[in-house]
Amino acid sequence: MASEARVGLVRRFQLWAIGRLRRSRFLPVGMPDKLTDESRLGKPFDQQVMVYFPTPQDSLYQLRPWYHALKALDEVHPIVCVFKDSRTAKVVRDETGFDCVTLARYGQLDEILSMSDVKLALYINHDPVNFESLRFTSLVHVYLGHGDSDKGVSVSNQVKAYDWCFLAGQAALDRTASAVMLYDAPARSILIGQPQLDGAAAVSGTPFPDGRRTVLYAPTWEASQPSVSYGSLETHGEALVRALSPAYRVIYRPHPLNGVIRSSYAAADAVVRGLADRVDTDVTLEQSFADADLLVTDVSAVTLNWLPTGKPLLVTTPLVAYPPSRLMQLVPQLAATDDFAAIVGEQLSADPTKADRDALIDYYLGDPTPGVATARFIAACEDVMAIRDREWDAARARGANGI
What we know:
This protein is an alpha/beta fold. The chain folds into two domains: 28-194, Rossmann fold (3-Layer(aba) Sandwich), CATH 3.40.50.11720; 214-365, Glycogen Phosphorylase B (Rossmann fold). The chain is built from 17 helices and 13 strands.
């Protein structure tokens, strides 16, 4: 009995310590604190649209570009955002005014959804925890993603988990159809364009006082999967910045997750930060684009976001294979052994691929006219909710209860 009492005491102490850690400033932002909003338990959601984002605060860069479109949707179909981390929920609540709820355990979500009439769940990434929400059959599940690109992860087999994927342009549909087997991509995909671009404020560039042209270097991170590790910081970063300075002004835009997997990548990031003329960590992507005359980046979503600028683009050659694409076949690539300064100079003076790049804008992004993609996003949400209502009525007639 004494032994059992000691075990119980140890367990209570462990739970107390975990609770204190979750509430302390020492819990890393990459770990969800799982501090439930107790006041929301046992009460239904009033909204019919749920944004499910169990990912912690260091991944908010994925959600923020969707704020504009989600606010537009919220005006006509109110949304509730569900998190696993209360700090992330607070940031989003403060930045958007959305109804943000933190639910630590699957059972809490189960209880609330069972008494709610949520029709649509939206997902920003493929976090494995999404399956806690994907289980429910009374609502439709739509994957939004957080930036279309020619990366291998853009053709993940995980798309099969969702009822539909909202895609930017025909390029994304073609990519999915060719790479994901046993999947009817045309039937499960809805093209909406890129609503994320609609929320960008108009900005003007700021030329450098001494007249130097500006090169923006915006590499991606090292990635958690070796097969899609396209980041160039270790292969190109330092040599690129040194080769371009002082003839060009170099703006470095680091990825928020640089170095979370490999310390050597963090070290390379630190070196480039020290060499660049400017480091854009608190500057909007639109301002970085406006201030630059040419972009050097990796295989990533940044290439597609840059296309509407009409300015020259170079993509680094990664050490791993990437899916074939029209853009990657067209855009000049920088190998680690190339003469960086000479190639940048040629692209700035002649830009030989400009006309062909401009022709790809609609293929990759859909109609970039401001407001069009957001309207398509809202219409697509309404369409799938109407399908849900029809199908759910039929399912309930057969005895389904959504659990």
